[in-house]
Amino acid sequence: MLSDSKCNDFASFFSEKIINIRKAISTSSSYAEVRQIWPQYQKDTMSIFEAIDSKILEEIVQHLKSSTCYLDTLPTCFFKSVLNCLEADLLEVVNASLLSGTFPNSMKTAVVKPLLKKSNLDNTILSNYRPISNLPFIGKFIEKVVCNQLNRYLNSNVYLDDFQSGFRTHHSTETALIKIINDSRLNSDSGKISVLVLLDLSAAFDTVDHNILIERLENWVRLSRMVLKWFRSFLEGRGFYVSIEEHKSKWTSMTCGVPQGSILAPLLFNLYMLPLSQIMRKNQIAYHSYADDTQIYLALSPNDYSPIDSVCQRTDEINSWMCQNFLQLNKEKTEGIGFGNKDEVFKVNAYLDSRRQTT
């Protein structure tokens, strides 16, 4: 039977799940040591946002999805239809946020609805549900303005990882697959076997550390002054409540993670992961990523499996970096797959299995 108490149970479960994941991560290094990897370049800095005009406002509003949050004063479709009447006030709110470096507190609360992961699962078990988050429309509009300006800055200064295909213009799961398949075929043409190591992270977007993320923005992509202040404001003081039909939970704070359902979350996560690309390049590891999914791949000559041992050692270094950054590598779901000559692949897979049993 549904009740506010049931909603509170969901809120506690979703919150405690993230707290427990972070507690389980062995962050043996001090926070100072977490910052030992630094970018190897010095480029432009972004210190202020540009105020927008009515033309930009109209373009963004009309292109945003018309989903409505329970916290919205007006249904989004109706809001769009009367935009001319609200335009001046909306411009004032958005530009005040951009120029003051402050994200409105009223836009920081998410409404979460539990969704059963599969229809055949027991609907009385909380772990069978995933949280689906929705945020106020005006807050997402402000995010879109910021996202557009930040992306222009990042692209013009080539800050983003070339091998990150997640949530980027002209990139997709298809571009990630094309890259990996092409490299595997080149290996096959030269008589080599390809080994793909699939790294799996547990609730990666939800365990992001805010202090480390701000440091990424400041030191890796050189955001400063009012822009950096805005992102601090955007991350702090967030919370959610669970809503099921007419029932809802108490408000629950969120002290880590990039906000689920927000426009900026995927981009912020990509920036959070930037040092990982440096580790890969330093160790000459071929890789490709799509958001929190990272694939490491290597070429093996027949009967020479030493590169596997080398990658396993590097995986330990990668896991250490992830722990220091409050990301949990799920070793049970991290897999290795061989491609190429059938007999050789059988030997490689057997070797990979033996490595799993000893690590």
Automatic annotation (TrEMBL):
Could you name the domain of life of the organism this protein comes from? Answer: Eukaryota
All residue ranges annotated as the Reverse transcriptase domain in the record: 96-359
Q: Which residues form a coiled coil?
A: none
- Quote the SUPFAM superfamilies the UniProt record gives: DNA/RNA polymerases
Give a Pfam family name. RVT_1
InterPro entries on file: DNA/RNA_pol_sf, RT_dom
Protein's name in the database = Reverse transcriptase domain-containing protein
Species name: Cyprinus carpio (Common carp)
